[in-house]
Amino acid sequence: MSVDLFSEDFATLSNDERFFAIEDFAKSQAVEGWRHDYTQQWDDSSLKTVAAFAHAFGGVLIIGVKKQKRDLVCELLGVETETEYKTRIASSIASNISPVPPYDIFECYKPDATNKRFCVVRIRQSKTVHLITKKGLSPVYIRNDDESIPANAVELRRLIDREREAPALGSRGAERANQLRDAMGIGCEYRSLDSDRWYLASSRSSPTFVKLMLVPMETVSIELEKFHEEHLRKLIIERYPYIPSCLNQGKALQASRRGADFYDFAVYYSNVDYENRWRVTGLGDIGFATQMACTSKFWSVVDLAHYIILFVKLAIRWWEFIGFLGDCRFFVQLNIPGLDFLRAPEGYYIQGFDASNVPLRAKRDLRKDAILLGTMPGNAANAEIKLNYFSAQESLSKLTTSLLNQLLRSLGHVVDTDILEESIASMAQY
User: Taking the complete model, does pTM exceed 0.90, yes or no?
Assistant: First the structure.
């Protein structure tokens, strides 16, 4: 298994394992980007990169690697020194960036050349403004794709506002998630299906549901317009290709609702009495809700995993569209009163409702030993996790597994996360 430079505990690795981790990363990530950069030696420009990573999404700066703009590959040359190099780097950061951003650092050398040294500085995201005090450098830097550039007046104001508002935004996240959750009511047994206003017909609130809510942890402001609505519907249809076919065959109805600060899109599958609902707000929040009962007696944990994966993939595209790459809190509310797990006769967990109509080659079940069932299961559960644009793409199976683990444990079950993540990883590919 490859070593993740963004999260690995390097204290547990040998020198050679550290070096080969850098080598593998440089081969697979030759082009510098938002969260990684290379430099042949530590210098003043490295201070810019460290501060810029802290102001953006965190990142890793690898020292000892030669990489010019037009180079197609990286050269692992190392820094020629007989003594420890990371102490010099730590001293430079402490002397020239105030306050010091959260970071850690590790060092290694080439297995066949102990005087060729490499360092990885791993910087974590911070809501604080970190000033560079080194003479001749601008005080504040931000990350712009593969560059660290001085912040202009607008960007500096954004960083200052983010620092000031961070405590309040964190406490308001749950409140906003609750508002989004309550606004996404899921109905069933709609009495009138002939009208374009079917969603106003008499119906019953679904006793079973799952609601997924992503709430930004920093200020986002969108003035919702027609093209936002059109783009969201386009993204939904791309991610859930069964929708247009069901609409064309008369098996489903759609509806749009809007207000000054929200847009809501719903699809009701009249043939199976199933409703899906998506909602976005002018604050950047996005949510999804649907039923969980796939028969009168059963619910599918495979469906739940699939809903989470599809929703995150949709959110990634939505974030790209509105230009948001920051941190979010992901909230899940699950309600399954009186339902048992949907399982095959052999005991493994199976799909109940096809949420995307993806090819049959996609593996759609969970091993029976992934979950040890409790004797007195609960009926409802909640889960929460932090993520951002990058972790949503790079760690989709891990974050889905974490949410499922929280939910299932709250219901009274035991989860083998390694086995569960193995199955989730295969789902996340489609």
Answer: no
